[in-house]
Amino acid sequence: xxxxxxxxVKRNNSRxxxxxxxxxxxxxxxxxxxxxxxxxxxxxYTFLFNLNEIRVSGESDMYSAEEIVAAAGINKGDNLLRLExxxxxxxxxxxxxxxxxxxxxxxFPSSVEIKVTRCIPAYNVFHENGVLLVSKKGKILAAxxxxxxxxxxxxxxxxxxxxxxVTAGKMLDTENDHKNEAFSELxxxxxxxxxxxxxxxxxxxxxxxxxxxxxxMVFRMxxxxxxxxxLSLAESVMQEESIRGKKGYLTMIGTNQCSFRISDKPxxxxxxxxxxxxxxxxAGNVTGEVNPDQEALFDEFGNYSGQSGTEIPQEQYGDDYxxxxxxxxxxxxxxxxx
Length: 338
Fold this sequence. Notes:
By secondary structure, this protein is an alpha/beta fold. It contains seven helices and 15 strands.
């Protein structure tokens, strides 16, 4: 009887079979990864990161924490991943009139912080149908539609802004981009100073903006550009030893020079009148002749006191005001350049 010999047969897999098996393994791994990812996301949006603490901070003397949270539309149990912070911030500003800013911050894993600041009345903005009470950030706090409406005392008054929005709770705006830029710079400048010493600003003509100070000084800054720089220059001039304590008229000369005059009367010289370029600065041959258009402009500004009930010192605006006084060689002996 013969012994049986066992043999093993080795099967050589083809390259095609190997590649096919590799592709199936890759697809299998990808499917497992997608399943794990889906389960993880589902848990995050349902069971994990659910809100159980809401903190309110900041200045909110007009509203309680509960009112602020309700305005934000946030509730305990909400999922942090689903929470839209920008939407909540907008809802707070829209629903709560006296909230100036709102910031909603997610604090993972399960809390939210809401920080608000209160609105501070900062400006009276006069328009043809009444006066708007506006906050430091430009939010309309009150809109009086009466042409004879009384302004809030102690706040700077803005004339000639021509607001396109007069609804309380909305942000102040105008269709005149030049005036919008000038007002934005003015607000930014005053916000950094703290103590406001400006009583009124007339931007009826954005090429000839006028600023009036509590100390009786009148500043003709010219065009709407570089408002912050021009205000800073005017304040520096008013602090000069030879100027401090005096009442008079400051006028921008070019882009980096300012003149001071005690009187607003024309110098009496004759010649060709100057013209304004696109930036509202004086160009051409400038003389001291009276400019009827500018006289009419400031007569109109003086009449604001009768319309609004706000007294504006008429002695600050001479009847003979002329923008043509801007040339350095036309000034009288009481003119000082800085």
